[in-house]
Specification:
9 strands; seven-stranded mixed sheet; two-stranded parallel ribbon; 51% helix; Spore Coat Polysaccharide Biosynthesis Protein SpsA, Chain A; binds manganese (II) ion; binds guanosine-5'-diphosphate-alpha-D-mannose; single chain; alpha/beta; 417 residues
Length: 417
């Protein structure tokens, strides 16, 4: 392919994932900025890219001729979407193309596109035509022409006029389930819009400039609302179209990432985060530790059943319980070492270091068990508190002990001078 200035690819920024306040290379953005930049993330959309570029160009040429840009950000698709997009550039002067070879993922693709954008308003739309293009103008008008300052316009399947075309009951259920889960964990973010999973929205540059966005997960809108300075939001209903070409990239992995994303946002934004920052409490770690603890309860229960139940192995109860707890402790250690304290253990990878951590963890958790029994007894016998309430409090106290002492002793960061 012939490379000249009219069809050369955009280079991929390698800086942290922050949107500059003014377009890069401009003098405070005064003259060189444009009205609108729209990022189209693609992965194997060879069959769709021509059509979406053509449709969007028709729409925007009518509305703001010359004052916009389309930025296709392709992750080196095996079907060479980037190459097809590149070949369209001479015909569509507003089109730019980025081919990423060293980075992957939907959210970071969108952020990288915005980083090189010149628009005062930044947007994103799927490249597979599932997002109807004509909705775009309604959103753009709301932001640029509205009487009041609107920072974010979201295309929503759940606002009036919105919907999904022919989703199975299971898919609707999973989608709503994810939304409810998000509402519980992060109400102040997901509660602000009717369709927090939308990947079709426009945001004012000034509302997200200067904050570092996290690339995790599929749902970049959560980052924008969670970390940006978003005052007013407007929603425009749309019907999520069926895919005609290519296929969705969503797998079960996205659900796990979504949960991780919610927890990360929870622990780094909001009032709780301010408090924990103020008092220097690692709240995110604690939440991870508590979740791992919950998995340990599950392991303990299952093993207790398998070992001691009369219908299974029928071992004596005490012996079974000791074995079950010990294995639950290994389970918890493993996940804590990989996940809760992963950043620390990755710096101390040698086997003798791991075994040392495991031994410390084991001893501290056993002490935690003693504390648990002790507190339970005091609350129940001395204060007459209901045994289950007492047990809950005792578990809480033991968890805090386990967390705090392990943080200080097992996964201690050794200061290197
Ligand atoms: N660059 C890049 N890198 N693009 C990607 C990647 C990636 O790793 N993964 C997916 N894409 C592109 C796809 O090519 C498509 O243009 C768009 O991102 C959405 O991906 P789909 O796989 O089609 O997702 P969907 O149909 O399930 O849509 C759901 O997620 C969207 C994105 O958040 C819905 O919730 C949509 O409303 C939402 O916009
Ligand atoms: Mn899609």
């Amino acid at each position: 392919m012939r490379l000249n200035s009219s069809n050369s690819l955009l280079s991929v920024p390698s800086s942290s994932l922050q949107i500059p306040e003014f377009p890069v290379g401009t003098n405070e953005g005064v003259n060189e900025s444009i009205e609108f930049s729209l990022v189209i993330p693609t992965y194997n959309e060879a069959a769709n890219v021509c059509k979406i570029v053509a449709t969007l160009t028709d729409l925007l040429d009518e509305f703001i001729p010359g004052d916009y840009e389309l930025i296709v950000v392709d992750d080196d698709s095996p079907d060479r979407t980037w190459e097809i997009a590149q070949s369209l550039m001479p015909e569509y002067p507003q089109l730019k193309v980025m081919r990423r070879q060293n980075e992957r993922g939907l959210s970071s693709a969108v952020i990288r596109g915005w980083q090189v954008a010149s628009g005062r308003v930044l947007g994103v739309i799927d490249g597979d035509l599932q997002h109807p293009p004509h909705i775009l103008l309604k959103m753009l008008r709301a932001i640029t022409e509205g009487a009041e300052v609107i920072d974010l316009a979201v295309a929503s399947r759940h606002a009036s006029g919105g919907g999904v075309s022919s989703w199975s009951v299971l898919r609707r259920f999973l989608s709503r389930g994810a939304q409810v889960l998000g509402l519980v964990i992060l109400p102040e973010v997901l509660g602000r819009v009717s369709d927090p999973m939308s990947g079709y929205f426009l945001v004012r540059r000034s509302a997200i400039a200067g904050v570092t966005l996290n690339p995790i997960g599929y749902k970049i809108l959560l980052e924008v609302i969670g970390r940006g300075k978003i005052r007013k939001i407007t929603e425009v209903g749309y019907v999520f179209q069926e895919r005609e070409e290519g296929e969705s990239k969503v797998t079960w992995k996205q659900y796990i990432e979504y949960l991780h994303h919610l927890i990360l946002l929870r622990s780094s934004t909001g009032r709780l985060a301010q408090l924990s920052h103020h008092f220097n409490i690692p709240i995110g770690r604690f939440i991870r530790f508590a979740l791992v603890g919950l998995s340990g309860v599950f392991v303990d229960m299952t093993l207790l059943y398998l070992l001691s139940d009369p219908t299974t192995l029928n071992f004596p109860l005490t012996r079974s319980k000791i074995l079950a707890s010990e294995i639950a402790i290994y389970n918890n250690f493993l996940w804590n070492d990989i996940w809760t304290f992963g950043d620390i253990s990755r710096q101390q990878k040698q086997w003798h270091q791991r075994i040392k951590r495991l031994l410390k963890f084991n001893i501290i958790c056993l002490a935690g068990l003693v504390i648990n029994v002790f507190v339970l007894n005091i609350l129940f016998n001395k204060f007459g508190i209901n045994r289950y309430v007492a047990n809950l409090i005792a578990i809480g106290i033991a968890t805090i002990w386990n967390f705090w002492i392990n943080l200080k002793l097992s996964w201690r960061v050794t200061e290197v001078k």
